[in-house]
Amino acid sequence: MSIVVENAHKRFGDYQALSDVSLEVPDGSLTALLGPSGSGKSTLLRAIAGLEELDEGRVLIGDEDATGAPPQQRNVGFVFQHYAAFKHMDVFGNVAFGLTIRKWDKADISDRVHELLRLVQLDGLAGRYPDQLSGGQRQRMALARALAVEPKVLLLDEPFGALDAKVRKDLRTWLRRLHDEVHVTTIFVTHDQEEAMDVAEQLVVMNEGRIEQTGSAPDLYEHPANEFVMSFVGEVNRLGDHFVRPHDMDVLDQPSAGTEEAIVERIVTFGFEVRVELALANDQELWAQLTREEAAELELRENQIVYVRPRHTKTFNGAAPATSPVDGAAPRAAA
Amino acid sequence: MTGNSTASRLALRSAALGYLGILLIAPVALIFYKVWDDGFGAPFDAITSPAGVHAIQLSLITVAVAVPLNTVFGVGCALMLVRREFPGRGLINAVIDLPFALSPVVIGLSLYLVYANTGWFGEWLGENGIRVVFSTPGIVLACVFVSLPFVVRETMPVLREIGTEQEEAAATLGASGWQTFWRITLPAIRWGVGYGVVLTTARVLGEFGAVTIVSGQIAGETQTVPLWIEQQFREFDQPGAYMGAIVLALLAFAALFAMQLVGRRTDTVSAAPALTTDGTEPKEAER
What we know:
heterodimer, A: alpha+beta, six-stranded mixed beta sheet, five-stranded antiparallel beta sheet, 9 helices, B: 0% strand
């Protein structure tokens, strides 16, 4: 089912967690709420679940106005960052919980729970207790528990935040596949832009209680609406009013039209990508992303003098972002 | 592990055990030994005398009323203080500890002032045929008062520690507030509550100062076990006094044991639904 949030406001004491947030999530989609901590993304998610009450605004799940409804009546599946496992129940008891509350027949509960445990690959572990499971297993159990009641929407609050990097990557691939199988409208909250881009079809970038921009990953990356989105989604260098992606930096060993002198401060190699940290004559720091071959060709070393030139920059003066391919005559505010 | 640190560990352990031994274990153990000094008959005769039996009955009645009362109040109060924001929360939180801060004798006196014939409610209560002071209600009231903080104070930190996520998860899965309390919150805090109950029971059984004042110490009528022990001791019936002490200790042990038993049972009941179909016995949770 689709989810619509209209003009949501929420304040905690002096802190404005949400200010005039409106959001539309299409039926069956996988959406990420992306933003730094304190941006209001978790509050928005909890408001959709009914775990927070909005000061103003409406929440619609499907065609129903859910604004005043308690969480029990919203039929949402919610997955918490720290799993919220029922520690005194085994895996079976955890997954069966929602069905037991709904007074399902014992045999039906058993069938449904085992079907879900197969789906989340925990079938052999029905008798284990949460403290006998790894973090990844606990989170899959929590997901099965949320899916057991056939929720209209699935909400995940930083679901992989407490897991280590490797498990995190596996789980997000797995979540995407699960979504292809189950097709329930899903929103997940994350502060990790790579995770958001990897998993979600639609990204909602939030900052300071507002939605900055909504769109697909390539959309946000290529056409950021403002400075915040540009710097939060992907890496960026700032040169005065101009923003440039590190992979849009030319690094040359000879001066050329529009180049500027810079000194190499540090070279970091990550597999095939080389990160070159530079300082301009005016001490401004920036970095360029090169391939290994490019770096090898330049024979880069620390304290070397190089000549840099941005290929594309963006400015966000006024409402519409302007993109300017930089040639020799491009304005250089930093110089 | 070096020999040196093993030696220091042993020294530390013996010091701790020795301290406990001299301060706690030896004096109590001595009672179990000294009680038989005048033979086996005297202590049994004393405790089975009408006044002795009545004292045990009265102590048990007091426990049966005061402990459930303070358990229900304590868990409810802890839930309010930890989970809700309301004006006056800080004040209630501070007042809860009052029974610990005041001497039980002071508590007894203040209850006397309120409920005696000349007190605030005493007159009205007397006119309606309810006698509080110098009778069982007064004793129960005094015991409820002095043991009030235990369950609250033992439950609050556990409630804080488990956080609200499990309760929120239960709510999104459709559980009502009441269902969430019985199925999620209570099992999660049961050890804290249980410990509070054991402490409450021990305190109610052992309460002396407040009960002395409000009961009037009428033998065979308003004497709880501690008051009866004190009277025996005063009247040079030492075997009787020691025997009373043993009865008190045994009742306290029984409470501890019952709590352990109940804790275990709720573990297996809530943790192992009869629905497990993979043929394996549900395992006991590791703790």
